[in-house]
Design goal:
Strand order of the largest sheet: 4-5-8-9-7-6
Number of helices: 1
Radius of gyration: 17 Å
Order of helices and strands: HEEEEEEEEEEEE
Oligomer: single chain
Number of strands: 12
Low-confidence stretches: 1-23
Mean pLDDT: 77
């Protein structure tokens, strides 16, 4: 495997979770080097699969991903998909600073998938994303980066489970207001 292919795989792993945040992630992170620590790395160049296993820690600028395993695959068109699974308490985790804010986005799930072709991020089972003081949790979180839309459900794989105590939970903090009681202009969406 060439160094360029390894770098490409590391870059996808680095952006694996950056798109999950419900706010803009630190843009400067994209220009930073990707560093991965793992107990084992397996490269299958023929099938375009790279596997990072064992206490995986990926960093790129302010982005940190912690999991037991990250698998990166590439399709025939060259698009990559990444999956992070396991970790402390069985959850893959990420953390990244928000663009131009002193706030962080934290997320966790048993499995987190990113598809570069569709710009789709999915968090499966015990999924939670916290941005600043806002948070959302459910069994499944889907973020479509292309359309900037979210779907959160109380059942696995975008299902809704009726007659259960499992519920989607969302906390949204009020936006700051100016002296006249109107929302203050923040320059952010």
């Amino acid at each position: 495997m060439t160094l360029a292919r390894i770098a490409s795989s590391l870059l996808l792993a680095g952006i694996l979770l950056a798109s999950v945040a419900p706010a803009h992630a630190e843009r400067a992170d994209r220009d930073k080097p990707v560093n991965i620590e793992a107990d084992r790395v397996t490269v299958d160049d023929k099938n375009k699969v790279q596997i990072f296993e064992g206490r995986v820690k990926l960093t790129q600028g302010t982005l940190t991903i912690l999991s037991d395993k990250i698998v990166v695959t590439q399709d025939i068109e060259g698009f990559q998909k990444g999956t992070a699974t396991g970790g402390q308490g069985g959850l893959a985790r990420f953390r990244q600073k928000r663009e131009q804010k002193e706030e962080w986005v934290d997320g966790e799930a048993e499995r987190i998938e990113y598809d570069a072709k569709t710009d789709l991020v999915q968090l499966f089972n015990r999924a939670k994303v916290v941005s600043g003081k806002d948070d959302v949790s459910g069994q499944y979180i889907n973020y479509d980066g292309y359309n900037e839309t979210y779907l959160v459900t109380n059942g696995p794989n975008a299902t809704v489970v009726q007659n259960t105590d499992a519920r989607v939970k969302v906390t949204i903090q009020p936006k700051k207001q100016d002296a006249g009681g109107k929302p203050a202009a923040t320059g952010q969406r």
